[in-house]
Amino acid sequence: MDAMEMLKTEKLSKAFGGLKAVADVDIHLDKGELVGLIGPNGAGKTTIFNLLTSVYEPSEGKIVFQDKSIAGLKPYQVTQRGMARTFQNIRLFADLTVSDNVKIAYHQHASYGVFSALLRLPGYYKGEREFEQNALELLKIFKLDHKRNEIAKNLPYGEQRRLEIARALAAKPKLLLLDEPAAGMNPQETKELMELIGWIRKEFDLTILLIEHDMSLVMGVCERIYVLDYGLVIAAGNPAEIKSNPKVIEAYLGEEVH
Amino acid sequence: MQKLFSFKNGIILVAVLAFYAVIQFTISQDIMPPFVTLNLMLICVYVIMAVSLNLINGFTGQFSIGHAGFMSVGAFMSAIITAKLAPKIIPYIPLHDPKPVLLLLGLIFGALVAGIAGFLIGLPTLRLRGDYLAIATLGFGEIVRIVFLNSDYLGSAAGLTLPRIATWPWFFFVTVISVALIHNFVRSTHGRACISVRENEIAAEAMGVNTTRYKVLAFSIGAFFAGAAGALYANYMYIIQPSTFGFLKSFDILVMVVLGGMGSITGSVVGAVVMTSISALLADYPQWRLVITAILLVAMMLFRPKGLLGNKEFSLNFLGRKDGRNGDA
Amino acid sequence: MQVFIQQVINGLSVGSIYALIALGYTMVYGIVKLINFAHGDVLMVGAYVGFFATTNLGMSFLPALILSMVVCALLGVLIERIAYKPLRSHPRITALITAIGVSLFLEYGGMLVVGPQIQTYPSVFPDTIYNLGGVTFKIGDIAMISTAVILMVLLQFIVHYTKTGKAMRAVSFDYQAAMLMGINVNNTISATFAIGSALAAAAGVLIGVYYNSIDPLMGIIPGLKAFVAAVLGGIGIIPGAMVGGLFLGIVESFVSWAGYSTWRDAVAFAILIIVLIVKPAGLFGKNIREKV
Known about the structure:
The complex is a heterotrimer of chains A (258), B (329) and C (292).
Chain A: E1 5-16, E2 19-25, E3 28-30, E4 34-38, H1 45-52, E5 60-65, E6 68-69, H2 75-81, E7 83-85, H3 98-106, H4 114-119, H5 122-141, H6 157-170, E8 175-179, H7 187-203, E9 207-212, H8 215-221, E10 224-229, E11 232-237, H9 239-244, H10 246-253
Helix pairs in contact in A: 3-5, 3-6, 5-6
Chain B: H1 7-28, H2 34-59, H3 67-84, H4 86-89, H5 99-125, H6 130-149, E1 160-161, H7 168-186, H8 189-199, H9 201-206, H10 211-234, E2 239-240, H11 247-260, H12 265-281, H13 286-303
Antiparallel strand pairs in B: 1-2
Chain C: H1 2-32, H2 39-55, H3 61-84, H4 92-114, E1 119-120, E2 129-132, E3 135-138, H5 139-161, H6 163-173, H7 175-180, H8 185-211, E4 213-214, H9 220-233, H10 238-257, H11 264-278
Antiparallel strand pairs in C: 1-4, 2-3
């Protein structure tokens, strides 16, 4: 095993009924890499995320995360091992405050137990202070600190997307999976977001796997890119290689060309 | 930051103690009409029931309609201590008046067994969602009733007779402690984990929250306090019968929670006080009581489905600092 | 062997009633995803309409049965329009709570109207007991089973061969798509409530005839049992409700025969919980999971 390796899939496949949504996918991420996963709609990108986070069980193949297989783990156990994600269709805790959204993701690192909570022992106050401080620091990075007491669903769309990333970071992941983080954002917001992603990768020492529908966007930030079509990896390489790959052009030609 | 000895907590403490003292004085001086006393005790019982059900239904977003089943377990299990085994236990209590110790033992035993029952029933059934879970809990409540109905040891359909050893201080302080503990739980990281299950189970799981654990935990804690409420009830009413704790009782408690607002502790307290008072006022017209309950329930769902308080808390925040809704209320 | 057949016959009698009620549950659930808690109470109203039709209006069994079905069909539509329809876009729990409210309203509102006492149902069939090789049965048993069977066949016909039935299946399969295809979803839902409630009314009259007594709370237990039957067969699946009802009837019949009649209801609920845990989609259902 390569000590530099963060994630590896071997012949990862998922079939729904007769339909193979993902077929024999081999991808690997080294520590600290920022890798893009692109492909037309319905190519199986989100299915791969769902497999990586144990929301789905693979039909075949295996997933090795930090040198250990994640087979049989529940989604929350995968997260506790150090993999956190965002969702394509935003899944915030919509009726809770911005700050509570982040605190919930810190929960797994809680320093006090149920009894301390029930009886409000000193550990409770200490733990809650930590939650409060950590949440605030994180929200500052995402420029959401002034909105920490607002209800999440009342935030503008772009801020909801940012909050989802902040929340994922609160889980203190090693590997961050971002599912179309820029979807629905205007070009200016997208540009800022991409800079932010680059920055948090260094700051939090992260490895990032990023799904994007928009090719041009991924080209700017990702070091390597996998291209998925009909559940198969049709190309892999650095942005320059991908751009000139005829298969990729073909896959995207039927669709919108960016 | 949160503090234990804040001005606000001081005010709450003084108000609570003053309320207790006034009632205790009027009862001890025989000024309080027995009918009112009875209903004050019942209010305490239903406050515990409603707040504990709210933990399950309102905060954790599960849907239990078998809560009276746990009350029943608490009532009958405490009766084993305070009625059936009392003669055997009393010699071991080196006190002039063994009743408080007996009641305390009954209370703890009733609550614990109910909590364990909650754990055992919650573990398999909480995989179910929404309406399926509702039906499973209803079925559980009915099974409890039928089991006690068929238990000769617990008096079958005729039920058990008990001494009246629970008094106002017991009712009052058990209620205050129960509500305070549930409040503390909800306002902790563990409570937030429960709330995240309600808000979005998939996201909660993705954020590392063991959703099954928190569902079962909320269910067990809720059952534990329902058991305590049942134990109090049993040791005041002289007699308990399995039929007292049917699903109609579960519905009553559900109405209190829904009326007050799912996810609001103070709402449940208000709901319990209002509904118990309505029952008391309409005691001579039980059918009208239920018709009114039914109309309230339907009207509430049609016009204000979030209940009186929604998931907000009625709070004394104006006394201290301003705070967010889900902060330390 | 005679005892066995006897129990099966008893079980089928009760089971056919459960099946009739379960059909209403299952149809309504299939189409609006609501456990209509008030369904058992519609049954009670049906029983009372039948009761007043025979005692006060002097009707015979069949006209009374039809009158009761018509009245309850209207009642079912009314309940849906007033209490459930405004909540269609709300979380399902909201409608479920409303259904509990409607149920309590019918039970205790009914009690205010007809009084809480038990009424003796007029015997519409001769009480003669027939003996066929050691197996005994009454005309009532046969009438009950055959009424149930006729109604179920009729329902199958409606669901599969009429326009309304096809619309019902379409809406139940995909609400949005049905609406886009120009199906009048509101009318289809009303039709479902009407048919389900009419079947419940028939079951109510049959229960009155079979047990000779009715009261305002009579609908609760059969309602819950029928729900168990519906879940057992796979809620939303019409043949499943029939099989589930008959199966539950037979199980109960054997539990009683074995001397555990006081445990009968507990067995039904235990079956419910086990089915929900082991195969929540029921014996005939398919499991579906939420899209992430």
